[in-house]
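Quick note —
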Amino acid sequence: MSQSISTLKLKVLSKISHVIHNALDLEQTLHDILRILSETLSMKRATVTLIDQQTGQLLITASYGLTQEEKKRGVYRLDEGVTGRIFQSAQPYYVPDIRKEPLFLDKTGSRAIEKGRISFIGVPIILSGTPIGVLNVDRLFGDDVSYEEDIDFLTVVATLIAQFISLNQKVRATVDELRRENVSLKYQLSREARRFYIVGKSHAMLEVENQIEKVAPTKATVLLLGESGTGKTLIARIIHEISERAKFPFIKVNCASIPDNLLEAELFGYVRGAFTGAEVSKQGRFEAAHKGTIFLDEVGELPLGIQAKLLRVLQEREFERLGCNKTIKVDVRIIAATNKNLEELVQKGDFRSDLYYRLNVFPIWVPPLRERKEDIPGLLNHFLQKVAREYDRRLSFTPEALELLRNYDWPGNVREMENLVERLAIMADGRQVDVPLIRPYLSLQHTETIPSAPEPGPIIEAKTLSSGHTSLKELEKNQIIAALKRNNWIQYKAAKDLGLTQRQMGYRIKKFGLEELVARERARAKNKKRSQANLHTGA
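Predicted structure written out below.
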């Protein structure tokens, strides 16, 4: 009999040695080891229970002969049951009859239907002198073989498992390091070759770059915080480009630019007949972003009703199209951005606290340009090179003009600077740009610290006070009106002309009481255009 048992042992160990080659798939390889034990030795049940470093509990990591539901029930405290005792003592434990052993909890419930005597053996899995788990089996051999022989054999198997786990940890560490190096390399390529890069060497921007490199290879939800125009969309694109999702879609949604009654359909899609005008079914942005990244800009503008649906997507990765009960599963990474203080919105009841905490997993603060003025020359040079390619204009700034721009606060941030340089490329007559050409396009309330230009600056007419000085408020108002006139009273075009966002333009129109003027002049422009069209067609 001893010869037969020895042959079985060698056969089992030989088979196990052949499966310990897939060092990355820990659970599958452990499952294969337990399958070999079961098939070769007619064993009904076996489990490998490992310590979970996050919870500090013992969890069944692999099993053979258990259903998934039975496996899920296998969770133990370190001082609980036979498994906890084996782990804490780092010693084997033999139970001749589990019906008479109070420490045997049978949490999985897998032996409840069996009536006869069941013997049970567990041995610790020890790595570098420290227990990391437990290998449990029902009795391997019959009563004609001593349980000590069972324990000796299982101890050898547990040693092989420990060595495999050690190898798995080393391989994973190597893979993680290679992944980090790959992300770093992709980041450099992204910056220098793909034009998806951040110009700036200030301490603040170096910190942003460091955070991008850390979070990009993970699955974490990212929340980009900062003023409008700081480059949050660009950063979201970079995170996507250097992540493992780069070959899948990057979908952008501006939550503030889509009307509330359309936003839900835009995000989650709809089926035919869901509402008036829904003549065909349409997938939403989340479906379009499957396996990729969805960027939710201005997320602070989301209505509370849609916030609840977004929370479900974050938690469950599922939703339904409008007008349909079929649940759709998606694998999407969410990057959100806002220029609002979400904590204040939560306190006011305008933003769900649970959604805020789900979005705020990895926040990145993007500093405004006025807080990193050392980056201004580099950014200006970058945009000058861009207009040289797109407009075939080789421009440069005089020292006075460069000083003017360095001292400017840039309320519209990088977006305002890009718009300004593009405007100068169109307006400049020569190759050199001086102060007089620049000054009219700068927001006046942010120019008080700028030294006076050698030539007259503003070219617009402005109301003056009795002292002869121009009111800053009146100057700003007149600049708004002048921009609207230049752009046929179309607000978004005037906003772009001044380097403002549509929201900032709307605020200023309301601030200066220009709503009626804009509506009147816009209507007049439309009527004039219609009249010209009628004359042209002979109507």
